[in-house]
Amino acid sequence: MNTGVLGGGALGLTAAYRLAQAGDQVTVIEREGEVGGLAAGFLVGDSGTYLEKFYHHIFKSDTTIWALIKELGLAEKLEWMTAPSSTLNHGKHYSLAPSPFVILGYKPLPFLDRLRMGAGGLYIKLVGNSPALERNTATKWLKQLMGERVYKVVWEPQLRGKFGQYAEQITATWLWARIHDRTAQLGYLHGGFQQVYNRLAEKITAQGGVIMLGQTVTSIANTPDGKVEVKLEDGRQFIFDRLICTFPSRVFARVAQGLPPAKAAEYSWGTALGAHCLILRLNQQLMTEGTYWLSITDPGYPFLVAVEHTNLIPASEYAGNRLLYLGNYLPMDHPTYKKSGEEILADYTPYLKRLNPNFDRSWVEEVYNWQAPYAQPVVTVGYEGHIPPHDTPLQNVWLANMFQVYPHDRGQNYSILMADELVKKLTGAPTAAH
Question: Which distant-in-sequence residues (6+ apart) come within 8 Å of 239 by Cβ?
Fold first, then answer.
């Protein structure tokens, strides 16, 4: 079949690769200038090495992407590491990894609260999902499971930092999956995950597929004979036997022609936040105690996490540069998105000095300012009932996006898994072994 795939991220490229393997003539249309979507990377300075625009790693539970990395011949570049992770509490770093032993040493809480938090975390790891969680908020559930003080000290600042005004509406199901899926060890692909998506693109084109970059889709519509017409901003149009669209549901509703009004409203339900990352290429280490991942629980900080990538991966792989992410999820009309990298750095500098009093602007060799819309669905109570099916009211048009990976958090692994499962549904072809 002649199949179109809209979106060249993890989901779209994997679906296109599997369909090409099954014999389809595949065309991938991607708005950005490179493949990879939210996992796309850029070359750091003159190092020749990719770094993700938005921080990425995988967990031991992410077996689908692990299998794909092996399949693509990149397994020797994947390394599993125990990463130093901490929270910032009253200006101090406290280790807080998914380990009972680490939790028992978490000094911002009294010992009995540490015991309760550790027992609660173990319970979450052992139990499965249940419909009762979907009807409960993460706030209420955590207070019941771990106590008011654990919630106030550990969880509330992180939920509020990630979801802002929606923090107390987030469903317990999402938090269950987030904790349940995490492992103490993290995996990273030396040279960057961009290699996965470049390799997928190579495989697709080697099998006769076409990848079109820098192209914006303006409409999707059925033709009288049931095929699918896709129009681009530059006026070109393409006819496909079938189409997989990986756009956010709200964007799909905007470009899909002929949707019944009730269906368009369903696709437009809910809220999503944009992702923002300021990446600093430094000539010195910021978090000298070696922290890789620092969750900010102190109030007032303008970013929710500081991730010093080169406290996990040696700076020697980036020509000696130190690399620091300062990450946020923000409403898509937030003023930060209109600022330059230098303006944001000026806003962040007083807080960087709190993390390291010696920090100075002269440490910064380069500033990278990345943003992406619709990066984090706001998973409020009842979210599950609003997830659209893959098949759409348009004939031969299928929708697959990160809004449908629920209850799991958005990420490469579950996007790739969804692609495998959708292609199996469409073609009957076997998916990769997990």
Answer: 2, 223, 227, 228, 229, 230
Domain regions of the chain by residue span: 2-38+192-269+379-427, 99-181
Residues 6+ apart with CB under 8 A from 431: 18, 420, 421, 423, 424
Q: 73: buried, middle or exposed (CB in 10 Å: 19+, 13-18, 0-12)?
A: exposed
**What fold, for 2-38+192-269+379-427?**
FAD/NAD(P)-binding domain (3.50.50)
Separation between Cα atoms, residue 272 and residue 292, nearest integer Å: 27
pLDDT digits (tens, 9 = 90+) for 68-113: 999 999 999 999 999 889 999 999 999 887 777 788 889 999 999 9
Return the higher-pLDDT residue of 189 and 427.
189
Binning pLDDT at 50, 70 and 90, where does residue 300 land?
very high
Segment (H or E) for 58: strand 58-59
Place of tokens 């027992």: 119
- Cα separation, 179 vs 25, in Å, equals 40
- How high does pLDDT run on average in the chain? 94
Q: By three-state DSSP, how is residue 145 classified?
A: helix
The better pLDDT of the pair 125, 187 is held by 187
Residue with tokens 């409203």: 265
The DSSP element (H or E) to which 92 belongs, if any, is strand 92-95
- Give the helix/strand (H/E) hosting 103: helix 100-104
Model confidence at 396, pLDDT cuts 50, 70, 90, reads: very high
Query: Which has the closest alpha carbon to 173: 130, 120, 126?
Result: 130
| Cα–Cα nearest to 22, from 36, 42, 1, 45 | 1
